[in-house]
Amino acid sequence: MKNKLLPQLFIIYTRYLIGFAFVFASIKKIQGMRFTTESGAENPINTAWHFFETLYQSGIYWKFLGIGQLIAGILLMTQRYAKLGAVAFFAIITNVFVITISYDFRGTPIITGLMLLANILLLIWDWDTLKVLFNKEPNFPSQNRLESEPIWIYIGVSFLILTIISTLLNIKFLIIPMLICIIIISCFGLVLGIKKYKNKLYN
Q1: Whole-prediction pTM value?
Q2: 127: domain range?
């Protein structure tokens, strides 16, 4: 199954998707900004907004969380270092998921739960090599896999640059052009991936 086209493309774009989510969420933390425009200090101490305000007021820890998310997201989006990214991502997203079910986040646990499940899927996909962490003999994947192609690194870097620019500029009229660019790059990657897969089948 791991050598078939659709599963490989699904894994590659899942890495992009959840990696993008972490990079996007990390920028404001690293900048020392809140998620919202208003302070949560006046909310009851057992509410989600008060909890986030406490994290924000910690200063260094708030930025540390952002740096951790940024690193995990970037590693996933590179594809080449996605295995390390999946391990780092798992530690962070598990913590985030538990936080969202500990407070009244309404529908947020659904999103964080899906991200956690996607991350677990990535770990299962790379289990053949990750099992070395449990003192088991690893089985290295075939170099004919699509993810070994350098093009995915370039696409990941393109996504990363677009995400950082759109977040830093925070200009609403740029959102649609950025989304169009991401869609175009995604389609280009799909077409190229299918073409390379077919070439490997016939060579």
Answers
A1: 0.85
A2: 5-202
